[in-house]
Each structure stands twice: as C-alpha cells, then as structure tokens.
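Page 42, continued from yesterday. The earlier attempt failed because a stray header line got pasted into the input along with the sequence. Redoing it now with the clean sequence only.
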Amino acid sequence: MDPSASGTCAQVGCNTKSNGEAGSPRRPISGPEAASGPDCGLQPSANDFQQQNDEMLRSKEGRGWRKLIRNFTPSWFSIIMGTGIVSILLHNLPYNGIWLYWISVVIFALNVFLFSVFLIFSILRYTIYPQIWFAMIRHPAQSLFLGTFPMGLATIVNMVVFVCVPAWGIWAVYLAWALWWLDVVISVATCFYLPLRSNSMYFHKTELSTMTAAWLLPIVAPIVAAASGGIVAEYLPNPQHALWTIIVSYILWGTGVPLAMTVLVVYFQRLTVHNLPPREVIVSVFLPLGPLGQGGFGIMQLGKVALKIFSTTHTLDAAAGHAGEILYVMGWLMALIMWGFGLVWLFFALASISRSKFPFNMGWWGFTFPLGVFTVSTTTLGKEIPSKFFSILGTIFSVFVTILWIMVAIGTIKKAISGQLLFAPCLKDLEGKEKLGEKHFANAAKNSA
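This time it went through. Structure tokens are written below.
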C-alpha cells in the first residue's frame, strides 16, 4: 500500500455523496466537521459514551465528600470506643476532683458529637452506595469492625447514666434504658451473625496463620452491653425493670464470655504455632484484654446490683434471701480471676509490640479501649475489696490510657487531614467485580455487533 495514500478522512476528504452515489472529490474536511461529520465514520458509539460516563463517575467519587463517604469504614467507630472509655475513666477515677469531672463531661460531649457525625456518614454511605454494604459485610476483616458500633454506643449509655441522670432527673434514666435496649439488639446481631458470615464457616476459607484478635470484636459487644446493663439497672426506679435488665445482662454475659474464651484458645494456638501478626495489625494483640477486663467488671457490677434487687423483688427466695449475696461474692471472685488472666495477655501484648516498630493506622485505637476496660476492672476491684493497691494501680492505668488517647487522637487527626486514613479494603473487591462486569458487558456488546 502506498503510504502517501494513507490518512484520515479529514486529510483526504470523502469521495461519496450523501445519497451513496459516486461523485467528484470534495474539499478536505477540517474543523468541527472532521469530528462530527457522519461521512467520516467518527461518530462515538454507545459503548464509548458509557465508558466516558463511568470514568467521569469514578473521578467524582475519588474526590471531595464522595471520597470521604465511600471510604468511611466501620473501623472509625473504634474512635467512639476509645474516647468513651477515657471519659468513663476520668469520671470514676479513684482519686478524683471537680476539674476531672468537667473534663470527663467535655470528652463525653465530644464523643456524642463524633458518634452523631459518624452515624450520619455511615447512613449516607450505605444509602448512596448500597452495593458497598454487601461488599463490606462479605469482607473477612472489615465486617468484624461492625462490632465497634454497639460498643461505642454502650460507652455513651454509661456516661448518660453517670452525668445526665444526676443533672436531668428520672427521664434520663429511661433514655439510657431505651438506648441500652437498642444496644442489646445490635450487640446480639453482631455476635450471632458476623462470626458465621465473615469467617470460614460461610464465605471464606481462613488459614490459622492469618487470624488476628479482631475476631473478638463482634463477640465482645454483648459483654460490653451486659456491663452497661448492670450500670443502668442500678439507677432504674422500678425494681421489676431493674430485675429484667439484670437477667438479660447475665444472659448477654453468658453469650459473649464463653465464646470469647474459645476464640482466645484458638488465638493462643495461632501465636504459638505461627509468627506474630504483621506489624500493620500487631496492635490487635491488646484486644484480648477487652473481654477479660469488661467481662470482669460486668460480672462484678451485676452481682453488686443483684445484691440489692433480688432481695427487693424476692427473687430466688428458696435461697433464704441469700441469692443476691451469692451472686455478689461469685461475681467478685470471677472478676479477680479474669483480671489475673488479663495480666498474662497484657504481658504478651507488651512483649509483642516491643520487638519492632509498627506504622500508625486506625488499629492504634485498639490500644485504648482494651486497656481502658481492664483499668475499669482494676478500679472497681479497688472499690469493692477495698484495696489501695488496686485503687492506685487503677489511677496509674487511667493516666496512661488518657495520655495514650491524646497521642492516638493527634495521630488520627494528622493522618485524616492528609487523607491517608481514607481507605476501604472492601472497595477493592467491589471495583474488581465492577471491572469484570464491564468486561463481560463489552464482550457481549462486541459479539452482538
């Protein structure tokens, strides 16, 4: 073929009239006619328009508020957990002062604000992009962080009891009670459904070497709700309401604690047979302190409330009125045993993170809540025994957790401003499926043409 004869229609013109008959050569076409003239065969196809629209949509979703909403994962609610436990620690510090009380109130108000904002972001995410919900719920790691939502809500319920009830009166108790029932429903749903849905029992084949303590997140939620129920029941004016709150809380405790212990056995095997978790998730080694600390506090608080309510409501009268006393003593004993078991895991965790440096990420919030609830168990033991040793140790732990919370909060703000924390692993799976679907669509269109 002669190279001089090659070229575009715009360069050599078209040799065909509109009616399809042969004619004399026309002038070369240039300008807009070259791009839009039907004679040149350059009219974009429907597939080209679809591809351009998809590219424009992706570019929009990768910027501004759409990027924030699309990448807002459930793990952000771990901030609510960490902030909430700090407000509780400062409020219940053994050696307290009025200035610490007001600091705890400010942090509580901040936590309510953050919870409201995060809840709005989550609703927008799954309303605008409903396909992300299904991608997230099937993700073996991201779905586990749904357990952070009810646990964060429980810290708010506790502070409503501690702060709002004395200030606002009896209606605040029923507000806390209503929020607690909502928390119970969500906690049970996460505990029953997520381990089955996200792990190897349903969708994914999981190797033991890839396991992390994040498996505990949906399981600990009922334990946190049980402890919160013990706090709410202590303030309910109706003894029957308090009794049923206690009974439900004991059931929640029995739902979460044995299952958490089972996971701890598997996790201990994982640590002994395989290496430590990758440095990106090494902070998760602190998560076992969660069920042990909160479980110990919860069973102790429930026994304390049962001591008063059981005698008032004549529950288990066959025990000659000693049922509440038995539950109180057994609760304290079990809390002490769980506290000792927590010391072992605290040593394991400190030894694990001391071996190498690890990058900052959202997982750092895994420091604050587990250490915080272990501290709550420590200070409660100091009150119930009573013991200056546990009270002083609880105060030291509380100061340490507060400083740690400030450090993690500063790191989170810096990384969030730079956009480095706006990453949702489940979106990668979703985008892969979308590209595969587009490929099938293009092939089908090509074959039909």
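Notes: Residues 1-57 have pLDDT under 50 and may be disordered.
Reminder to self: strip header lines before submitting.
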